[in-house]
Amino acid sequence: MCIGRRYMQLWKGKKVLLVAKYTRVERERLEHPNVSEKQLLKQLSNQGVNLKTILESHNEHYNIVKEVTAAINRLDVESKIINLKDINTAAVSWADVLIAIGGDGTFLVMSSYVQNHQTPVVGINSNPSSSLGYLCLPEICSRNIQNTFDTLEKQKYFFIDRRRIRVSMKNTKNKMEPPINMYQDFVKIRPDSHSSHDMLALNEVFIGDKMPGRTSEMECKFDGNMPIKIKSSGLCISTGTGSSAWSYALNKISVNEVRRILNYKFHQISEQECIKIANDYNKNLVYKPDLEYLQYTIREPTGRSLWQSNDELIKSDKIKQAEVETHCEEGCIILDGFLIYVFPKGAQAILTSRPEDSIKSVMINVD
């Protein structure tokens, strides 16, 4: 971590880009441009959508967008604001400071366009009533936007250099297609927006067959060790930032599981001991976002390697590098849950974590 006041003045004379998420209400309007507001709301209600919830969320988001815009306008900066659906590499490269107004999804999408690891990135949770916003400033910051910007202007902040995963492609016979972007209405984005041969993920990378019910076959080398052939439901590789997200969900153990395993052998294990064991184990799954390690998890392995020793297959471990060759029928690589690349049979991917690929995330200490 790096203390902000020793590093730079965050705002003065800088170019600031604000990227605001598009809400459920906006998405529905985009998908039904020829339907009146009244008809649209009736249609959503008939589908079982809670109109009160999505309208409150929409209004809360735009109230915070308005407050952030007003706070920025009081500073000595040049600023622009764009909607998340319109984000592009040129807009992000223009900025000296980036502000994501939304939640973790908005932060992840925006960070995927960041090429300069010295660019500070601020996340502001625009729905603190219903969203945790792990990557954003603490909830209290969303409750008092002007006070938050006063705090930032006084340089009372620090940086977290969040490591990302770099995915480098090898042995692809044909030029890879641009990815499908789940946040931009399943439309293939411009090739210059995300490179097809060097990709970056902040939370995690998933590699597997695009059909969930089909076995994912691949050959993996972890930290240069002997290759192992794996049949499973896919491979998840996460960063320290992602260790509290999908990776955590894949690896955590419940109190019931601890109780069932221990009671199979021992009959005098108390509930308190089971809770402590589960909590201690799960706590160790999460590690600091600035560490160089990656965490791999093999989901539901179904077959043994032809080259593997008799030792038990290690389903999850920390590594520094992974090399993966896909043998999936319809392989894919998914970055942070929203960028989907075709990963053709026989192609290879090398996954590493480099300091120059980090995201400089701005945080505030809250007493």
Strand content: 25-35%
Dominant shape = globular
* Reported CATH architecture of the largest domain: Sandwich
Report the uncertain regions. 1-7, 186-192
CATH topology of the largest domain: Tumour Suppressor Smad4
Total DSSP helices: 10
CATH class division of the largest domain: Mainly Beta
The residue fraction in helices comes out at 25-40%
Q: Between the first and last Cα atoms, what is the distance in angstroms?
A: 18 Å
Protein architecture, described:
- This protein has 367 residues and is of the alpha+beta class.
- The chain has 2 domains: 14-156, Probable inorganic polyphosphate/atp-NAD kinase, domain 1 (Rossmann fold, 3-Layer(aba) Sandwich); 163-244 and 286-356, Tumour Suppressor Smad4 (Sandwich).
- Helix content is 27%, strand content 28%.
- The protein is built from 10 helices and 21 strands.
- The chain has helices spanning 24-31, 37-46, 51-73, 89-94, 104-111, 139-143, 145-153, 246-251, 255-265, 271-283; strands at residues 2-3, 15-20, 78-83, 97-102, 120-125, 158-162, 165-170, 180-181, 187-188, 198-201, 204-209, 216-222, 228-232, 235-238, 294-298, 316-319, 321-326, 331-335, 339-342, 348-352, 359-363.
- The strands form 3 sheets. An 8-stranded antiparallel beta sheet has the order 9-8-19-18-11-14-15-16. The chain has a 7-stranded mixed beta sheet with strand order 1-6-21-5-4-2-3, sandwiched between helices.
- A hairpin with a 3-residue loop joins strand 18 (331-335) and strand 19 (339-342).
- Helix 9 crosses helix 10.
- The two termini are 18 Å apart.
- Residues 1-7 and 186-192 have low confidence and may be disordered.
- One of its GO terms (molecular function) is NAD+ kinase activity.
- This is NAD(+) kinase.
- It comes from Aphis craccivora (Cowpea aphid).
